[in-house]
Specification:
39% of the residues lie in helices and 16% in strands. It has 12 helices and 12 strands. The chain is globular and about 85 Å long.
């Protein structure tokens, strides 16, 4: 028999990587990671009023919704199989003050929306953020005293906010303000109020990032912010510090961990999952979403392909799920719906 060994066989030792890539069926058979609808959490923006669907210019395809319209949208998300939503309010400027006091109103926008959605769509999970930035007149996540975001006083208020959100029907509290000790304090507060079954998804590593701009436009804090958030968010340069932050949240009782932003911090996603083994999530934030949308609208990339590729890469990086403004769009693709 004629020897058909090729020079390439001698170089590779007969190990040819392309054998497993040769056909669609082999590629599917050896695929390591898969994106499913179960991996998607949909963030939505709320506004007061009724019948409102208000497009956000910096986030093409994303709208601010009044509660009635949010209920309709969440019903669609549930029908697609999306397991959970995360809500963010854009409240009236007249209700914002130095301490974010309206966050403590039991009937504020976020709590009204939680109650309405839970009543209309009981099978979907509701994740709420206890941070104060939607309620402060200065745009910071905590209480501002002089030039300082005060830690302990902010934590005390955030705990009260978290309990009220749980009273309204929130399933998971996801505090994003990055104050020291907040996770343990919230856990104690929830338990004392009888909310042992309400989980905490910690913004374990929230970085001081330039990717948040469109989100701040969505909740109208971009023009309010005094200074920056470097004194409480993590520097993008610091991976070890991020791990220490997350370790404290684990010790204090976090049920799940989140990395925010997502794509620029895939290494942190992997490190958290490997180190702690807790359910780990990434937030594909507004700037990431808008980059993809803008490039696609200009014809520079295949928007749908890049959207699905980025969502899948979070799975490869160890994430159990992704908060993404693409959630509904991606869920329709996964379900084969137009």
């Amino acid at each position: 028999m004629q020897d058909k060994t090729h020079l390439v066989d001698e170089i590779t030792g007969h190990r040819r990587m392309r054998r497993n890539r040769k056909a669609d069926w082999t590629r599917r058979m050896v695929q390591e990671n898969r994106l499913t609808v179960d991996d998607l959490i949909w963030p939505i923006f709320l506004v007061p009023g009724s019948g409102i669907v208000d497009p956000i210019p910096a986030m093409p395809g994303v709208n601010r919704l009044s509660i009635d319209k949010a209920v309709e949208a969440v019903k669609e998300a549930a029908d697609l199989g999306i397991p959970a939503i995360a809500t963010f309010p854009n409240i009236e400027m007249t209700l914002r003050d130095e301490t974010g006091s309206h966050s403590l109103a039991a009937d504020n926008l976020i709590n009204q929306a939680t109650a309405a959605i839970k009543k209309a769509v009981p099978g979907i999970g509701i994740i709420t953020d206890a941070a104060l930035d939607p309620f402060t007149s200065h745009g910071h996540d905590g209480i501002l005293r002089g030039d300082e975001i005060v830690n302990d006083e902010t934590v005390e208020q955030v705990v009260r906010v978290a309990v009220m959100q749980a009273d309204a029907g929130a399933d998971i509290i996801s505090p994003s303000e990055m104050m020291d000790g907040r996770i343990g304090a919230i856990r104690r507060g929830l338990d004392a109020a009888g909310h042992q079954n309400v989980g905490i998804m910690s913004y374990a590593t929230k970085f001081s990032s330039g990717f948040y701009g469109p989100y701040r436009e969505a909740i109208c804090t971009d023009g309010l912010l005094k200074g920056d958030k470097n004194s409480y968010y993590i520097s993008p340069a610091n991976g070890t510090e991020a791990m220490r932050d997350a370790a404290l949240d684990v010790e204090e009782g976090a049920d799940m961990l989140m990395v925010k932003p997502g794509l620029a911090y895939l290494d942190i996603c992997w490190r958290l999952k490997e180190a702690y083994g807790l359910p780990t999530f990434a937030y594909q934030v507004s700037g990431e979403y808008t980059q993809i949308k803008a490039a696609a609208m200009n014809g520079w990339i295949d928007g749908e392909r890049v959207m699905m590729e980025t969502l899948l890469c979070f799975k490869r990086a160890g994430c159990d799920g992704i908060l993404s403004y693409f959630a509904v769009e991606a869920a329709k693709i996964l379900a084969g719906r137009p």
